């Protein structure tokens, strides 16, 4: 156990997660649905296999997949399918709100509901134990943080001109973005369920000599495959409806290579959050391990807002608005730890 190394590894994952949307700004002449599914192909299909082949003992990956219980593989993929709705709308939330506002709301709800939903589904009475009460309090604080950050977004909308909004976030739409971010946060919580469903796969991986640092990699293959299916169906629908399927062959070779490079980079950054999360959480002592997910979400929120400042998403707003935003972020980060304490 090495908690400092564990937190640093999780922090590396957070940097990737909070930064993954930035390379999209370098994509040229492609509609959102085109570069989103290109990123998804790399992040959810290609890269998980590459990392599993690299970090699982040579020749053991296919036997692990073959021996893993069919139910575990199916349920991991099923929860991945549900998470796919969250991943899809997460991208839309960032599209309409920007990196800072979109990630703050979606990730805060993801942390809260990822802990709240399992006991509700199991039929537990959350008010019968101290832990349950703390969980409910934590979720209530999350909602308070969302409201505060939403208020900051409302102030931003009032204070910035239409030109300033579009310069910061090209398709800024506060109401639509917040509704999408709330849905994204709730559905993204299914990723945690996928990890739980995939525990038997991890057990098989360990039996085949996999380093505990990388025991989650085989499970990720199934979770992310399910998520890719959801996103693929929607993006192909948009490609057909908007006639943007020509994006893939109507650009010059240099533009195509540029777009593939930056969507690959986005996909790699996105995937690294869970690769490093798996490594970092394995190094946390039992007493701290429960906070691993909260550490990831809290760091994601903090780093995404640093990117928001770098990308000038809040340029031109009043000091009061920034203060409200900071208060909301602090409340949101605090809530993730209270939820996990519960």
Gyration radius (Cα, Å) is 20 Å
Q: What series of H and E elements makes up the topology?
A: HHHHHHHHHHHHHHH
Q: Assign the structural class, choosing from mainly alpha, mainly beta, alpha/beta, alpha+beta, or little secondary structure.
A: mainly alpha
Terminal CA distance: 23 Å
Tell how many strands the DSSP assignment holds.
0
Major pleated sheet: none
From the spread of the alpha carbons, the general shape counts as: globular
Task: Report the portion of residues in β strands.
Answer: under 5%
User: What is the helix content?
Assistant: over 70%
Poorly predicted ranges (pLDDT <50, ≥5 residues)? none
Give an overview of the whole structure.
Helix 4 (70-97) crosses helix 11. The protein is mainly α and 342 residues long. The chain has one domain. The radius of gyration is 20 Å and the shape is globular. It starts with a helix and ends with a helix. The mean pLDDT is 84. 79% of the residues lie in helices and 0% in strands. The chain has 15 helices and no strands.
């Amino acid at each position: 156990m090495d908690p400092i190394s564990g937190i640093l590894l999780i922090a590396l994952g957070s940097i990737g997660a909070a930064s993954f949307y930035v390379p999209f700004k370098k994509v040229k002449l492609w509609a959102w649905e085109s570069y989103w599914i290109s990123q998804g192909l790399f992040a959810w299909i290609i890269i998980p296999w590459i990392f599993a082949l690299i970090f699982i003992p040579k020749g053991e990956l296919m036997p692990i997949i073959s021996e893993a219980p069919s139910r575990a593989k199916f349920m991991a993929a099923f929860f991945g399918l549900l998470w796919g709705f969250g991943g899809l709308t997460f991208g839309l939330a960032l599209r309409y709100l920007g990196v800072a506002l979109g990630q703050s709301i979606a990730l805060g709800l993801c942390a809260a509901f990822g802990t709240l939903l399992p006991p509700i589904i199991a039929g537990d009475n959350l008010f019968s134990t101290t832990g349950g009460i703390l969980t409910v309090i934590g979720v209530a604080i999350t909602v308070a943080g969302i409201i505060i950050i939403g208020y900051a977004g409302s102030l931003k909308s009032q204070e910035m001109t239409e030109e300033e909004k579009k310069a910061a976030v090209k398709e800024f739409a506060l109401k639509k973005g917040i509704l999408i971010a709330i849905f994204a946060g709730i559905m993204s919580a299914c990723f945690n369920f996928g990890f739980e469903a995939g525990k038997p796969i991890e057990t098989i991986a360990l039996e085949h000599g996999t380093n505990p640092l990388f025991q989650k990699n085989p499970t990720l293959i199934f979770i992310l495959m399910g998520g890719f299916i959801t996103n693929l169906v929607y993006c192909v629908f948009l490609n057909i409806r908007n006639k943007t399927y020509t994006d893939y062959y109507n650009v010059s070779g240099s533009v195509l290579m540029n777009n593939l490079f930056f969507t690959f980079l986005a996909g790699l950054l996105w995937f690294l959050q869970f690769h490093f999360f798996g490594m970092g959480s394995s190094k946390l002592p039992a007493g701290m391990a429960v906070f691993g997910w909260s550490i990831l979400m809290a760091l994601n929120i903090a780093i995404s807002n640093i990117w928001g400042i770098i990308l000038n998403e809040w340029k031109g707003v009043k000091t009061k608005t920034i203060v409200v935003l900071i208060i909301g972020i602090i409340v949101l980060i605090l809530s993730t730890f209270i939820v996990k304490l519960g």
